[in-house]
């Protein structure tokens, strides 16, 4: 006998833009985000018995996202995701969990003639700030904040040697290589009982995002990397140190390989080892290294 093991539904890819205008200074601040909101609860009969009386239409969920963005601050995204999730629980008794994901896209203020421009912005990279909120009657508000799509490269200061060598190994050891990755990292907060607890000390969220970003970039640049594994672990440790309310940190890092190229076939050109200058960036396969670090 089949039974519905789990179910959630809602609207994905809801694109929202909000502007804040400072009447005194004329300075405008913009936020662009993509929101996904999925509901869980007593909705089984909509799947098993064609009972739509338990369905809040995904179109209504989309409308709610716009209304809540108008009524409330959209920054920090942790607060907005919590407000949105809490709304669905407060409004619909049969919904027990709202899963909200907010992806904030970069609009960085332009500097023109050396001055920050009051209303012009540029997209400086595909990096996003992310929040996943699970708002539930049982567990309160669980938040995982993160950074995705932050592409970095260092041209030296990275090694990889001492790994297992056996009959499957062709990779030479290296004491100097290129290291490049698209950073996907996250930090999971202690559970908050309700919206009031999220609001109280709300500045913790921007502070942690700034610290995590700074720690990621500084550690990537300054660490004499023994491996992706070791460098990412150092980043996790530092984020836990910087944000006391964070319980767990995680990284998922592709190792984007740049292969040396033997050009000796052309007039004996030296382009390997110490003479390597022209490399071949690889699109795949790539390493993929992940970890989660918690407080012990
Ligand atoms: O930092 C690395 N970790 C690995 O596990 C690995 N494996 C590999 O082929 N290259 C690398 N680099």
Structural overview:
Helices cover 25% and strands 37% of the residues. It is an alpha+beta fold and 296 residues long. Strands 1-2-3-6-7-8-9-12 form an 8-stranded antiparallel β-sheet. The protein has 2 domains: 1-138, Roll (Urate Oxidase); 150-296, Urate Oxidase, CATH 3.10.270.10. The model has no long low-confidence stretch (mean pLDDT 98). The site of uric acid (URC) has 8 residues, from helix 6 and strand 12.
In short:
By secondary structure, the protein is of the alpha+beta class. 25% of the residues lie in helices and 37% in strands. The longest helix is centred in the C-terminal third of the chain and has 20 residues, at 203-222.
Number of helices: 6
Question: What percentage of amino acids are in beta strands?
Answer: 35-45%
Instruction: Report the mean per-residue pLDDT as an integer.
Output: 98
How many structural domains are formed by the residues? 2
- The strand count comes to 12
- Are there runs of 5+ residues with pLDDT below 50, and where? none
CATH class of the largest domain: Alpha Beta
Overall geometry comes to: globular
Which fold name corresponds to the CATH topology of the largest domain?
Answer: Urate Oxidase
Share of helical residues: 25-40%
InterPro entries: Uricase, Uricase_CS
Catalytic activity: urate + O2 + H2O = 5-hydroxyisourate + H2O2
Main location: other
Pfam family, one: Uricase
Sum up the structure in keywords.
alpha+beta, two-stranded antiparallel ribbon, oxidoreductase, 25% helix, binds uric acid, single chain, 296 residues, Urate Oxidase, eight-stranded antiparallel β-sheet, 37% strand
